[in-house]
Design brief:
The complex is a heterodimer of chains A (247) and B (254). Chain A is 77% helix and 1% strand. By secondary structure, chain A is an all-alpha fold. Chain A has a domain of 94 residues: Serine Threonine Protein Phosphatase 5, Tetratricopeptide repeat (Alpha Horseshoe). In chain A, helix 8 packs antiparallel against helix 9. The longest helix of chain A has 19 residues. Chain B has 254 residues and is mostly helical. In chain B, helix 1 packs antiparallel against helix 2, helix 4 runs antiparallel to helix 5 and helix 12 runs antiparallel to helix 13. The chains are: A mainly alpha (247), B mainly alpha (254). At the A-B interface, strand 1, helix 1, helix 2, helix 10 and helix 11 of A face strand 1, helix 1, helix 2, strand 2 and helix 10 of B. Strand 1 of chain A pairs antiparallel with strand 1 of chain B, so a sheet runs across the interface.
């Protein structure tokens, strides 16, 4: 047997999750046993985080069981349950009541970094479930500011991805490009594969709108290839559409 | 403290290494304490593999210390694996221009082929014998034979990454011979195997070749857009060799 702190296991598992190696992350967490209640809670919470992330945009359900096994009533657990319910509302159908829960998570966030995270998800819900773009942008701005303040580059990347969508929708291609390029670089630097591919798909859209149809098609073809191997259907679908744009 | 087997830790570290997360892989292995000498050996061997892999990608030298550390705990059970890691490290040094006797390296590869304890390992070292024949000794026919052996053994042992390595280099030979269709077939399959295995550097290296191929197929704009995004990604990791190769492809005059 080997011994190490649960925090070291959790850090490695989160990094594996970001790299899209969800099964390896779950295997590592499942292999670890501990008598310490705090370590047990951390391992269970991280297992749930991996499961929620793994299910995102897929028809799998690893999250329900993993969330049920997390002890206690922490803010972090409430945030994970919220993210899981948001993903279900976005990709399948679902009950919401998500707006009040988002507001509560923002209000009860124990620190600025977590308030920034909750603000980002509140923005995503306002955008994609309730179709309130102005409110969404206000939340993304808060998330961006808190991400910068706390040095949370992934939060910055997520906020910029979504702010870039609004710039793009408003026809400001130059602003969209600057926000999306910074976003993708932060995702790549953090080793976060799925959003890096999602951003690459956005850049392929942008190339098309900038008039570089051949460039858009070639990039979409390679993003599509990778998304199929990683098995992320929504990115594979979006890029397949771009590959079909006539020259 | 939490408990798990060294094998579980080593498996996770190998995945992190393939994802280009060498520091995270090293941190995980370094944080682990093992009671058992066999487990300590596994952890030291894994640390050396992560270091060798990282040095190849980033042209650093983490491996010398890690290989010295594994020498202190090594026994017969890992002797072949340690020799293989040393061969990979010395090959990288020779490739990046800091010397080494190419004939001596090829002789070591030949010995490891003869002594390989199983077909998976024989396939892996056959691949290295191939790149040495190609890149250090300028013997393309011999290289081709080694790659073909590596491909067969990779398929037989269901080792997707070994298959991807062999196909990358067989595709190079097809490309050099002007057979763009065969090169595309080999290179696309190689790219996909690497993406499925979570091998980030390998996937980006293959995308670089696909950008070269787009250029040769006459799609200059497509080549440029793929090269631009591979370059961006390689700068963030960073992987200097890929940054350099893609920068050349991004130049509009091509």
């Amino acid at each position: 047997m080997s011994h190490l702190a649960a925090t070291d296991i959790a850090v490695a598992a989160v990094q594996l999750m970001r790299a899209g190696r969800w099964a390896a992350a779950a295997d590592l967490l499942t292999a670890a046993t501990t008598d310490d209640p705090d370590e047990h809670e951390l391992l269970a919470l991280t297992r749930a985080e991996v499961a929620v992330d793994r299910d995102f945009g897929r028809t799998t359900d690893h999250a329900t069981a993993a969330l049920a096994e997390v002890p206690g009533n922490s803010w972090d657990l409430a945030m994970l349950k919220f993210r899981n319910d948001y993903a279900n509302a976005l990709f399948q159908a679902g009950d919401p009541d998500l707006r009040d829960r988002a507001r509560t998570l923002v209000e009860q966030a124990p620190d600025d970094a977590r308030r920034g995270t909750a603000s980002f998800w509140a923005g995503a819900v306002a955008d994609n479930v309730y179709e309130q773009p102005a409110e969404a942008c206000a939340q993304y701005d808060v998330a961006l500011e808190l991400g910068e303040k706390c040095g949370d580059e992934l939060l910055v990347a997520q906020a910029l991805r979504h702010l870039g969508h609004h710039a793009h929708a408003a026809g400001d291609l130059a602003l969209a490009r600057s926000q999306w390029e910074r976003s993708i670089e932060l995702f790549q630097k953090a080793g976060h594969l799925r959003p890096a591919l999602a951003q690459q798909a956005s850049l392929a859209v942008l190339l098309r709108d900038e008039g570089d149809l051949a460039g858009s098609r070639a990039l979409a073809t390679e993003t599509n290839r990778w998304a199929r191997q990683l098995d992320v259907p929504f990115i594979a679908q979006q890029t397949a559409d771009l590959m079909a744009v006539p020259a | 403290m939490s408990q798990l087997t060294a094998a579980d830790v080593v498996a996770a570290a190998a995945e992190l290494m393939r994802a280009g997360q060498w520091a995270a892989a090293t941190d995980l292995l370094t944080a682990t304490r093992a009671d058992d000498p066999g487990e300590r050996r596994s952890l030291a061997l894994a640390l050396a593999e992560v270091a060798v892999d990282r040095d190849f990608a980033q042209q650093t030298d983490h491996a010398s210390a890690a290989l010295a550390a594994v020498d202190e705990v090594a026994d017969d059970s890992i002797a072949w694996d340690v020799d293989m890691l040393k061969l990979r490290k010395d090959y990288a040094n020779a490739l990046f221009g800091s010397g080494g006797d190419a004939d001596e390296l090829a002789e070591r590869a030949r010995r490891l082929i003869d002594q390989a304890p199983d077909e998976g390992r024989r396939g892996a070292v056959s691949f290295y014998a191939g790149v040495m024949a190609d890149n250090l000794l300028d013997r393309p026919d011999e290289a081709f034979t080694h790659y073909t052996t590596a491909l067969q053994l990779g398929e037989k042992t269901d080792d997707g990454l070994l298959v991807s390595y062999a196909l990358r280099h067989l595709g190079d030979h097809a490309h050099t011979a002007g057979d763009l269709a065969l090169a595309r077939e080999h290179w696309e399959l190689s790219t996909e195997q690497r993406q499925r295995a979570g091998h980030l550097l390998g996937a980006l290296a293959q995308q670089t070749l696909l950008a070269v191929l787009l250029h040769d197929e006459g799609d200059a704009a497509g080549s440029r857009s793929v090269a631009t995004e591979v370059n961006r990604w390689a700068r963030q990791v960073p992987i200097p060799g890929i940054v350099q190769q893609t920068a050349d492809l991004m130049t509009p005059s091509r």
